[in-house]
Amino acid sequence: MSTSPSPSAPRSAQSVYAALADWARTDGLVWIYLFKAIAAALLALGIAMKLDLPQPRTAMTTVFIVMQPQSGSVFAKSFYRLCGTFVGLVVMLALIGLFAQQPELFIVATALWVGICTAGAARNRNFRSYGFVLAGYTAALIGIPASQHPDGAFLSATTRVCEISLGVLASGFVSAVVFPQYTAALLRTTVRRRFSAFVDYVSAALAGRIDRSQIEATNARFVADVVGLEASRSTAVFESHDARMRSGRLARLNTEFMTASTRFHALHQLMNRLRTEGSMATVDALEPYFREIAPLFVKAGEPVLTASDAAHVAQQLADYRATLPKRVRETRAALEAAATPDHAARLLDFDTATELFYRFVHEMTEYAQTYASLAVDTHAREKWLERYVPKTNLIAAGVAGARAAIVMTLLGAFWIATAWPSGTNLVLNAAATCALASASPQPARMASQMAVGTALASLVGMLVTFGVFPHIDGFAMLCVALAPALAFGVFLTTRPKYMGVGMGYCIFLCFLAGPDNLVQYNPSGYINDALALVASMIVSAAAFAVFLPPSTPWLRRRLLADLRRAAVHACRSRLAGLRNRFESGTRDLVFQLNALAGKDESQRRDSLRWLFATLEVGNAALDLRHELATLPAQPQYAAGTAWRAAIDAALQAVSVLFDRPAAARYERALAATDAAIAASARVLQGLFHADGAHDAATPPREERHQLQRIQSHLHFIRTALIDPQSPLAAQAADAAGKQGVRHAS
Question: Of the N and C termini of the chain, which has fewer Cβ atoms inside 10 Å?
Answer without folding.
Answer: N
